[in-house]
Amino acid sequence: SPTLQGAHEAAAAAAALSLPAEAYGNDPTVEMIWAMKAHQHAEVYFNLISSVDPKFLKLTKADDQIYTEFRKDFNRLKIDVLDPEDLKSEPAKEKWRPFCLQFDGVVEDFNYGTLLRLDCSKGYTEENTVFATRIQFFAIEIARNREGYNSEVYNSAKKASSATEEVSSG
Q1: pLDDT band for position 58 (cuts 50, 70, 90)
Q2: Cα separation of 35 and 111, whole Å?
Q3: Spatial distance between the Cα atoms of 124 and 41, rounded to a whole number of angstroms
Q4: Could you tell me which InterPro entries the record lists for this protein (predicted)?
Q5: Could you give the CA distance from residue 106 to residue 145 in angstroms, rounded to a whole number?
Q6: Which residues have C-beta within 8 Å of that of residue 168, sequence separation ≥ 6?
């Protein structure tokens, strides 16, 4: 029956997603599932910073530690508008590796792939999104939240929502 097949595929996908990235090879099914999961995570996060003042958000139990270590290791990194080279170049990867590895066992799935906005004043679009590890996402987004860079998204959403309320109640 089709439902049993669908359930079997879902179980296989769940099992596959629990493996490290290197185990995937180039399986298009797994890539598609990963892309859907990453997109869903991105949407949830963007909705969250649109509806709650990001300065008060806590993304993990280790936010303080992540932020402290991030700013110790990357004190000059420009985070409002990221340069993909600051994540992707060989020298950047060398610098990120020890930072990321210290969160193995501290942040669940710290090395899973996720989507990160380049310009934090904008949403998730193809041009404004880069692939990053989960701990890179947390480090940069916690810093953006604490340093006020994500407030623009929240304030824009608040203005849009109050304009909509005025129109509907007018």
Answers
A1: very high
A2: 15
A3: 11
A4: PBDC1-like_dom_sf, PBDC1_metazoa/fungi, Polysacc_synth_dom
A5: 20
A6: none
Backbone angles phi, psi at 123, to 5 degrees: -85, -170
> Which residues, 6 or more positions from 146, have their beta carbon under 8 angstroms from its beta carbon?
55, 67
CA distance linking residue 76 with residue 79, whole number of Å: 9
More confident residue, 41 or 70: 70
Name the CATH code of domain 27-169 (choices 3.90.230.10, 1.10.10.60, 1.10.3560.10, 1.20.120.330).
1.10.3560.10
Chain-wide mean pLDDT for the chain? 85
Q: And the tokens for 65?
A: 């530690």
Sole residue written with tokens 């530690």: 65
Is 62:103 a contact under the CB 8 Å cutoff? yes
Distance (Å, rounded) from C-alpha 41 to C-alpha 54?
Answer: 16
d(CA 95, CA 1): 51
Q: pLDDT digit string (tens) for 85-96?
A: 999 999 999 999
Cβ(114)–Cβ(38) under 8 Å? yes
Higher-pLDDT residue of 10 and 46 is 46
The Cα–Cα gap between 115 and 130 comes to 6
Per-residue pLDDT at 170: 62
How would DSSP label each residue in 152-170?
Answer: HHHHHHHHHHHHHHHHHH-
